[in-house]
User: Fold these one by one.
Assistant:
Number 1:
Amino acid sequence: MNFFAIIGRVVLTLLAEIGRLSLFIWQSVSHVFRPPFFWRLVAQQMMRIGYFSLPVVALTAFFTGGALALQIYYGGNEFNSESIVATIVALGITRELGPVLGGLMVAGRVSAAIAAELGTMRVTEQIDALTTLSTNPYKYLVVPRVVAAVLTLPLLVFVADIIGIMGGFVVGTQTLDFNAGVYIKNTADFLKFDDVMSGLIKAGVFGFIIAIMGCFHGFNSKGGAQGVGRATTNAVVTASILILAANYVMTSLLFAN
Amino acid sequence: MSDAKIELRNVHKRFGSKVVLDGINLTVPKGQSLVVIGGSGTGKSVMIKCVLGIIRPDRGEIFVDGKNVLKMDSGQREAVLRKFGMLFQGAALFDSLAVWENVAFGLIQGRRMKRKAAKDIAIEKLAKVGLGPEVGELYPAELSGGMQKRVGLARAIAVDPEIIFFDEPTTGLDPITADVINELIVDRVKDLGATTLSITHDMSSVRKIADRVAMIYKGKIIWEGPREKIDDSGNDYVDQFIHGRAEGPIGMDVLKP
């Protein structure tokens, strides 16, 4: 009996949470299209979310591209490795690793920062204060972050694609003694617009997940410093899991044909 | 009841199984200052947040200027919110903005005023709470608790509100600073001719700013009367509270968790 009560409680809590998240997303998205618009805040958030994430994302992409090149070479050196390394690095980075690893790195950096900032604003009543100053907190706090993240993540991932392929190129030409011209030609020949585009679409969705999870957990944090800490952890964990799950779903949809 | 600025009728609110408001009936007449006293955790803050629309009550009606705010759509609500100003317990200043931007926030974001004009008003309001224009350039973290409260007051009066809420305006201040804040509140409210609803457990604050006093206990208003009557209210609960006695009808179950 007790056992079923526990299951029931878990299910109810989960459903309530999903309901609250859905309402939160609805509120946020509906305010994206209703004036007034806070362009300055969007620009500011684009700097914070996008520009300042560049070093992290670039380094991640570079080393991933390099490691990928080595793995393919060691795994397949009996075959025509010089051509498949370049091709698989390019496809792997643009389709999967660029958006996913970039998204996860930004989730760690940005979801946490958003949750901590909004969480602190919540517990110090700054979010309530916005309401008393005729400013909708969704519009002022959530919308700029969501819009900025959805716009900048594809840009970040595009940069990550280039640097990731460069990582493969550097390892390929320096360590594995491939011919630079052949490597570039192989990359260019096999890489299609759709490969890059699918990664960028994923990146936009990941940006949405990152900002929404940060805002949602920040908005709902309670109970002082401990509550803010919990909100921060939850934001990063849920954003990361949702990114991986969404990635699977999108891969199966985008490459289904 | 035509001169009632704010009226709460039978307002109920519970969080989970905990009943916080258990049928609040309260009227704030136009131009008067009503102070609600009561121990910690008796539902004072929740009551104010219900009027502001930050928390939605489970049952009951709340009227502002004779209109039921719980039945309004979001547009009408925002119009009502423009009449309000609020001083929060912890001042709730936006720590990412300079002091003057905090004071001008309701003007710039809420009323789309030009920044320069809003800054002039902000500096004028800062002067009214005894702060020089140089303070306007500082950030909230650089101010003492008393100065933060002053800035909070300046922000609350910046939009010339018809109704002002004070949430424990003197909590955490030394007695002299508390008295200065009390006097500022009285003076500024008189300037504006505003109606005010305050919550506090500081009796010196009550004696200074109240026209009428109401006491909340276990989610109900148990006594209400003019300020002069609090010393001979004939109510044991009020007597115990204003004299700060541990012994009395207010049980230890409330004072100790």
Note: The interface with chain A takes residues 49, 52-54, 78, 81-82, 84-86, 88-90, 92-95, 105-106, 109-112, 155-156, 159, 165 of chain B (CB under 8 Å).
Number 2:
Amino acid sequence: MDFQTLKEYLPFLIPLIILEISLSITALVHVLRHPHYRFGSKVMWILIVLFIQIIGPILYFTIGRGEE
Amino acid sequence: MNRYLAFFKKEIIEYIRTYKLLIMLIVFAIFGITNPLIAKLLPEIMKNLATDGFVITLPDPTAYDAWTQFFKNATQMGFIVTLILFSGVLSSEYSKGTLINLLTKGLSRTTVILTKYFSMVLVWTICIILCFILTYGYTVYLFPNDITYNLLFSVFCLWMFGLLLLAILMFSATLTKSSYGCLLITGIIVVFFMIIDIIPSIHKYNPISLVTDNMGLIMNSIKVSSLYLANLISVLLSIIFIILSIVVFRKKQL
């Protein structure tokens, strides 16, 4: 993909990237501040949240998050 | 009325604190942006996939492709995420025992069910509107010349099916103690709707036609009036499921 096509899709990519990053960061902050999980360890959840885009943070908040 | 408002406020705060609202908003916003984008990029992707001697040609993408993506994503991933997030609507309260305090202080069980249902409906409405606005904006930007028919009615049908689905979820949450059981019963009821859809004469009355006929509506090959009955039945079924869940919940041991 050359630079011209990339530029054409910028109005799509910028909001998408912002959304994905904000989701990752919220999940990451939550992982670090609440060290109790239903299963798995801190390192595992940090990796999942940071490297599996969109699905990772959703998985963490729905099934990984421990009770407060 | 005051009790409804207070409990409603508690529900919304819970959605914010447990990040449910945030996840719903972000997921639906991502769908809203990617729908037109995938429609636009699909021919390019297919071109790159083609190896020698094997050429896939697709017609130029139109606004219809973007809306196909919208209805596909909203009815599959959208509903799945919504149901999974809301599946703990009562089971989390059972397991923590947080409802017992409120109920012994005089909060009626009807209030609990109705408020929980309407707060889920509120979140669903906001999300579907957000997704629709984003898809609409980008579709107009990418495919300015394409005409679509009955767009608002089509999305309204989708929203209406969402209401029915949440009512079913509420009902199954009162039947079981765990969130997985709740998901399972909801799934079984939806599959039942899909199975009876095989009989053509029922299709007109079946609520599932609200989410299968959307593209026909947009291309103007299906008349708007053919879906009025399905809408009506969907509303009636939602009311019946909510009443049933109130009845079951009143008898339930917490």
Note: Residues 4 and 29 of chain A are 36 Å apart (CA to CA).
Number 3:
Amino acid sequence: MADTLLQINGLKIEATVFPPGEPPQDITIVDGVSLSLEKGRVLGLIGESGAGKSTIGLSAMAYGRGGVRITGGEVLVNGRDILPLGTRGLRALRGAEVTYVAQSAAAAFNPAKKLLEQVIEATLVHGRASKREAEERAIALFAKLGLPEPETFGNRYPHQVSGGQLQRAMTALALCPQPDLVIFDEPTTALDVTTQIDVLAAIKEAIRDTGVAALYITHDLAVVAQVSDDIMVLQSGRTVEYGSTDQIINHPQEEYTRALVSVRSIEHKEKLPTDAPVLRVKNITARYSGTQFDVLKGISVDLSPGQTLAVVGESGSGKSTLARVITGLLPPRDGTIEFAGRTLASDQKNRPREDLRELQMIYQMADVAMNPRQTVGTIIGRPLEFYFGLRGAEKRRRIIELLDEIEMGEAFIDRYPAELSGGQKQRVCIARALAAKPKLIICDEVTSALDPLVADGILKLLLNLQKVEDVAYLFITHDLATVRAIADSIAVMYRGEVVRYGPKSEVLAPPFDDYTDLLLSSVPEMQLGWLEKVIATRKMESAGN
Amino acid sequence: MHPVLKLVSQRLALGILLLFSASVLIFVGTQILPGDVAQSILGQSATPEALANLRAELGLNDPPMTRYFNWLYAALHGDLGTALTNGQDIATSMGRRLGNTLFLAFWAAVISVPLAIFLGLLAVRYRDRWPDKLISGVTLASISIPEFLIGYLVVYFVAVKLGWFSSVAMINDGMSLLEKLNAIALPVFVLVLVVLAHMMRMTRAAILNVMQSAYIETAELKGLSSFNVIFRHAFPNAISPIVNVVMLNLAYLVVGVVVVEVVFVYPGMGQYLVDHVAKRDVPVVQACGLVFAGVYIGLNMIADIVSILANPRLRHPK
């Protein structure tokens, strides 16, 4: 076992939590996890949020986030147990032998310092190279990672480069000290799919060329299948399954792994558009006050009653702005919104209560969309009072009805949002929207913050509710898998324009326009070698051009 | 135009506008004070003719607008008028007092600002351990005790009991710098105690706020020492709130030291103002008000400009 770089035996990690209204409790976050990683290999850690994967990753640097404590087991780096090391010993390890790539590079870079300075800092502090050597190394890494103008790239500040570039710079930061082990903690999760694929390819190439070992943490099995040699599946801090990538993807043994592999198995039969749309967006052009730039340029889409229109696009494409225009939060410069056959006032302040009732909204962040000091009953009961004047027993009966509809039940009526899981919170938000008996619900990235299996549950619920309540959804998302699962028609947005629009079967069938093709081909697929295939196809295409 | 230049010039224009509004307020404020300047100069026994003559001479019969603009015009040319009580030129006599106040404020600032920031960094480094608690406790106590009480306590123990320094901080032009510093040691000490807590606590809070950021974790995972993490990564991002509170305290050192100057009988602006308010010497009060407003607005303008310059997003636009 001379080549074993990282060996974790029986790791146990605990934290103290402060549940509302109860005394502090010690909970176990990671329990009895063992793994080993050899030089030059990549191990993928996969699981949903709360599975303990980041915590295990950081334990390789003996680092506990917040109040997290490593209370048992051993962590051997290069054959030496690092847990008993003191502050000084750990400092020598961190940033030198083991380095870390954070999930959100945009937040992980210091906004007040130039990139180059931050990339070479650890190398200099640990005396692993002279300043000139470190700078040369950084520039070489910038070039390898495909960053523009590698010579001068480092002279910029973090806010001057894009999110995808920052994530690559973060990888350069981790590789610059020439560590033995790099921990990648969800390095592409915050990126758009078309950006993700390039960063993924760059990371994979850098790992291969430098021969460094890596722990690759992600919740996306399709992503980890592209980069890792082995995969460990985690659930609630325990190992579910641990094996080679091929075995986990193609022959999963455990029920839970199988569920992860086959996530997004929703069957939804597309409905055809009708003649009388519930929502008709006509030629909308909009910009934010104080800017000179149209965020939306002549958008026109229709949505039939009881159907789902998915608006797909990357960040900055204007899809959320469209929601703001429809809800009247941002009056457009030009164009009209017709709703249930009447033209809506452009400003939400001038809309009658009936318009407000029939057009509801669900948000991405369920926990900030609810008042933390109100119970679930109060939150759902508010629209019942406001729109229908319901009081007392009648109101309570309707709240319970709604709670049953979202598959939660009466037991939750006196709970506070803090006591609910992420999926339950989103369900309560759905019930609140339904309480108004709307004709249309705008869903703005409602599943983006949720784990795949939980998101699946929410999507199924939304589809069932659509059947029962005959409500239409305008579904805003960047996730094409979600779109495939629930849409009847699709509008693909790019830089403020609808580049492709029609029934799902037409939009997702060739021939594609360039952007839709790029978008569709960038969605990671659950198969080995997918990344290489796509990159090779793209290289051939660009060579052909 | 570079956005920073635009923002800075906006701030400057705003500052000048503010100064003009302050001058209006000062003028109006001194006009609505009860009593009549001519009456207060000549006393209760003055004849109506004498009063009328003096009013005409002082221009008190002109409409308020005219008087305001005459005053402002003169003030802009450095002529702050003459004191009613002793007929001296205000600019000259106030200039010397202002110099003394700035001298005192300067040394108090030179000691307190770096000390406050250093103690703030130290408190963050040893957060919730005894150095932090000691620093917080002592500074909190010093800010809670009224400054005149601290002043008299210091005078009693250091000057009277121990006899190390003089209890009266008199300085004049004939003294060397060292003699002057010796003379102002006690008021400087009291002022440092008074302003230290505010700045130190703000530094601590601002840096602790930044310490929650993801990039601090990045710095820790680079294996940097705690002090390097705080000083090199957290501090540069906390400059803006720190500078703001530092400037407020510097302004206080110039404008608000009246009590301390009186305790130590120091010949500064505070003493000067208090004396002339008591004598209802309106032109002097106006002139002092204008200078104080200028100092206050000027320092806060500097704080704003430093905050703008400290923001890399503004300094280096995309």
Note: The first helix of chain B runs from residue 3 to 31.
